[in-house]
Amino acid sequence: MKKILYIFVLFIAIIVDQKSYAQCGTCDVTIFNNGAGNDTPTSLADGQTICITAANRNRSINLRNRNNLTICVAPGANFSGALQNYNSNNRITINVFGTYEGGLTLNNLNSEFNVFAGGSYDDAGTLRVDRGSINNAGTIRRPIDIRNGSTYFNSGTSTGNITLRNNAVLTNEGTIDINNLTIQNNPTIFNRPTGIIDVNSTVTFRGTILNEGNIIIDGSANIQNGANFSVLNSGRFEVDDNINLRSGGTLVTSNPFNQSPVAIIIARDINLQNSGSGHSLSISENTLVDLSRDLIINGPYPVFVNGELSIERNLNINNSGGGDPTRLTISGSGQVSVSRDLTSNRRIELNDNASLSVGRDLITTNNSSTANNNITLNDNSSLTVSRNTTINRPIIANGTSSVILNGDLDIRNVGGSGLNFNNSSFLSVGGETDVRGPIIFSDNSIADFLDDVNLFNVGSSRIELYDNADILITADLTAQSFGSTVIVRDNSQFVICDARGPSGSIEGAFPPSSRWGSSIDPSPAYYGGCRILPVEFLSFQSTYQVAKRTGLLEWSTAKEWESSHFEIERAVNSVDSWAKIGELQGKGFADTPTSYTFEDMNLPIQGGNIFYRLKQVDFDGTYTYSKTTAIQVEGLKGNKSWRVYPNPTSGYPFQIGLLDPSSYRDEPISLRIISPTGLYHFIQVNDLRSMGSQVGDWLSNQPSGLYTLEIIWGENREYHKVILRR
Q: By CB neighbour count within 10 A (0-12 exposed, 13-18 middle, 19+ buried), where does 661 fall?
């Protein structure tokens, strides 16, 4: 009876044991205990499968130099012993459902090391693949060394250091969180949309890197030796310290299908170092590069911007190397914002509705012999400088472009510096202007100088107007005797007054047209002061209110006589076509100062350069125009139905707007905000107008980072990236 019971228990144990390693398939040899020694059968043959089911097998297994073997570590089993008489050139397959420990080398193109879900490579040793492949859906905690075109596919968790050499290929769909990533020669890294690669030290990238997921570097990132690093679609590349481009390395963002969130690079600095040749930075449409400090271009290496580049400190272009002098090209509605200073000694070019804004000073230097170093704007492009501008090289504007300089302008007598505006382009200078080089306006171009203009007696100092050009100086023009020139041709107007037309009430000081150096065409060309108006303007200014995304107009009058009303007119990207957007009643008769405000609540979605002027209408219907002011408004980019702004944001204020009313039919709306850690917060929307404030209230209590906002209505959904800053 006892014998029967023993056989029954053994039978049950065998059944249970078979269930525990059913994933291994058919087993030719089963090792189910630690054993007293090597219990591999002497009959082991090529092509057989060895199943390890022992809970703790730390003794070696003799493979007897057999080829095409399969080693399977069953669920719950642990193998930490050595493989004796194992020729790494032989084909071998390791399938890990339990735990594998110890070092291993693969050197056969068909060899595989597979860690399945629930399995792990742990504790000790290095997995080296000279030839072969690694596939991980479980956990790998040990170092991996991949060489000679071998491959590593990770869809699980990998925490051991990784070395890639000699055309190795890493494909990641899971999480790689490691201390060191070593890259040699020309490997390839594919980081898929679900992939996260987090490295706790500086990384030097070589080869090809295609990132659609998240790559986070806790130190610096060096992209060199011809490396091609691409951040694609909704990919994210975040570097705690600097990104250094050198020796032919290229960094590219691309989002051709306008996915949301957009491709983004976040770093402290990007430094195009003056070493090697051929490296570049390219920011494509619908992508963002956000730098917390500087962009430094130290050599003859270009930066191309078709998307958005945000620089929280300075942009420095400070090398006069050979080749094409163009260092920064902004095109296709690309936007570059520099929070502090821009200093450049090479060419900057803006095309096709591009914009460049400088938060403090703009300085172009003259330490280069290249003749065409300049700032050139084409095709509705815009340049805005918040403080002072010093140019030792020319600014050239074509194709209804605009330049708004809110501080002083200093045109030096070196390097061919000056202003050359054509094709209905526009200039506004808010501070004092010193002219030691040529100012040339033609083809219906317009300039407003809101403070004194000083025309110095140096060889190239002059002001020239051709082909219906129009310059207005609302203060004084001081022209030194002899050597400074004023030329007015072809129906152009050069007015020194407080309004264009000519019209206004305060006549600025100006030299007579008969003075030496002046050359004025007969009427209808005009050069001089202005007549007394029924309305005397004290001020007129426009301000872009970023938080509300509105334009605020403020003006005041010193007196009014027979003043009926003011019509507010607006033009977008060109002063050729004006539209009335509002009207305010005048005082009629007033001898004391009067102030007015008007808020433009409907700025164009596409953004651009927004121009304003006032049409002051008398009781008898006669009218005159004020000077022109302008603001620069960013376009709202994203999906077709909704826009979120401002972005970046501090949480308050925050707005969500419907762009395409036809896409919304009163369906219930819900919002989901996904944090950088993957946690999310749901909001059920009861009122369309409160959507933005509900999101802003929640963001106000969250840490800085990149959040994803999901908007769900009916069967539709959209995703928007939101950068939260403190």
A: exposed
pTM: 0.75
Decide which of 176 and 716 is more confident. Answer: 176
* Helix (H), strand (E) at residue 216: strand 214-217
How many other CB atoms are found less than 10 A from the CB of residue 426? 26
Neighbours of 701 (CB within 10 A): 7
Task: Name the token pair of 547.
Answer: 């938080």
- Percent of all residues in the chain with a pLDDT value above 90, rounded to a whole number: 48
Long-range contacts of 687-694 (CB under 8 A, 24+ apart): 688/658, 691/656, 692/644, 692/653, 692/654, 692/655, 692/656, 692/657, 693/652, 693/653, 693/654
Cβ-based burial of 363 (10 A; exposed 0-12, middle 13-18, buried ≥19): middle
| Residue in 141, 137, 93 with CA at minimum distance from that of residue 119 | 137
pLDDT at 196 over 80: yes
- What 8-state DSSP symbol labels residue 700? T
Cα 395 to Cα 385: distance, rounded to the nearest angstrom: 13
The closest of 221, 206, 128, 114 to 167, measured between CA atoms, is 206
Cβ 107 vs Cβ 89: under 8 Å? yes
Q: d(Cα 166, Cα 150) in Å, to the nearest integer? A: 9
Q: Is residue 8 helix, strand or coil?
A: helix
Q: Report the chain's terminal Cα–Cα distance, integer Å.
A: 79
Q: Dump pLDDT digits (tens) for 565-605.
A: 999 999 887 776 789 999 999 988 887 889 999 999 878 76
Residues 133-159 as b/e (b if ≥16 CB within 10 A, e otherwise) read bbbbbbbbebbbbbbebbbbbbbbbbb
Question: What are the b/e assignments for 32-60, b being 16+ CB within 10 Å?
Answer: beeeeeeebeeebeeebbbbbbbeebebb
pLDDT for 13 beyond 60: no
The closest of 137, 183, 143, 138 to 160, measured between CA atoms, is: 143
**With contact defined as beta carbons under 8 Å apart, do 360 and 333 qualify?**
no
Model confidence pLDDT, tens digit, residues 655-698? 888 776 777 888 888 888 887 666 778 888 877 778 888 898 88
Q: How many CA atoms lie within 13 A of 293 on its CB side?
A: 11
Q: Extract the tokens encoding 390.
A: 């010093």
**Which pLDDT score, from 0 to 100, does residue 320 have?**
63
> For residue 606, what pLDDT is reported?
67
pLDDT (tens digit, 9 = 90+) per residue, 430-468?
899 999 999 999 998 989 898 888 888 776 888 999 998
Do 428 and 630 contact (CB within 8 A), yes or no?
yes
Q: Burial-class residue 482 by CB neighbours within 10 Å (0-12, 13-18, 19+).
A: exposed
Phi and psi, residue 258, nearest 5°: 55, 45
**CA atoms within 13 Å, Cβ hemisphere of 76:** 13
Which carries the bigger pLDDT value, residue 184 or residue 548? 184
CA distance 102 to 104: 7
CA 452/CA 433 separation, integer angstroms: 6
Flag whether pLDDT at 3 surpasses 50: no
pLDDT tens, residue by residue, 280-324: 999 999 899 999 999 999 878 899 999 999 999 999 998 766 667
DSSP string computed for 382-419 = EEEESS-EEESS-EEE-SS-EEEE-S-EEE-SSTT--E
Where is average pLDDT lowest: 85-99, 393-407, 552-566, 707-721? 707-721
Mean pLDDT of the chain, nearest integer: 85
Candidates 280, 294, 326, 289; CA nearest to 307 is 289
Strands 669-674 and 680-685: antiparallel
Residues 316 and 295 sit within 8 Å (Cβ to Cβ): yes
Q: How far apart are CA 535 and CA 533, in angstroms?
A: 5
